Amino acid sequence: MRLINTNTFELKEFFNYGIPRYSILSHCWGSEEVTYQEWQAWRSDPSWKENGWKTAKPGYQKTLNFCQLTRGAYLIEWAWVDTMCIDKTSSTELTEAINSMFAWYTKAAVCVAFLEDVGDGQGGAGPDLRNSRWFTRGWTLQELIAPSHVDFYTSGWHECGNKRDDAQLISGITSIPVEVLQQSKTVLEFPVATRFSWARIRTTTRVEDIAYCLLGIFGIEMPLLYGEGIKAFRRLQEEVIKRGVDHSILTW
């Protein structure tokens, strides 16, 4: 697992039991996210300390704000951001990361959900989470369910709620039971069809990702085959069937 040092912004790999306490970011990808290679090049530039907060791509600023929040508000030294902590040019690393994603979110000390399309509210009104795109994306489903501690932040990086205290509101938006959000029940206690239903309003950019983003929800690992299209979802169903008799899957 590759993490960002929130003081120096260096990337460092950790393995097995040597992984330190870390925060993890959940966000909707924009058009100008920063890759692993770009982050390394930026970090190795001698002028980064002077110009580090004046970068062209919004993805840099988002990550730097997240690191500052992690260090200042949560007193955590390490952070994980999917855009640059995974080298997506390596198919092996990408496969391992996607199969490990649910576990990584589960083990995080805190998950910061950045709702870029939610403002800070005006005239005393609190931010309205209900129409955020974050609740419609495939990958953010497991990022909401897996961590025990999820804090929501507005576009201005102001906290606007958390998963436990706002469980009723979030359940109304997502159809995920309050028991799952407050972790009094695990996802594995719910029928297969119910778990599939949580993804019915969610979309992904790549067709295959609608299956891959659900792997952790079903406790499944499988190879990634980008280019297979909707066959990925069929493979996911087959893997689910192999793991037990749950006739509710027939509704899907």
From TrEMBL:
Residues 22-120 form the Heterokaryon incompatibility domain. Pfam families: HET. InterPro entries: HET. This is Heterokaryon incompatibility domain-containing protein. The lineage of its organism: Eukaryota, Fungi, Dikarya, Ascomycota, Pezizomycotina.
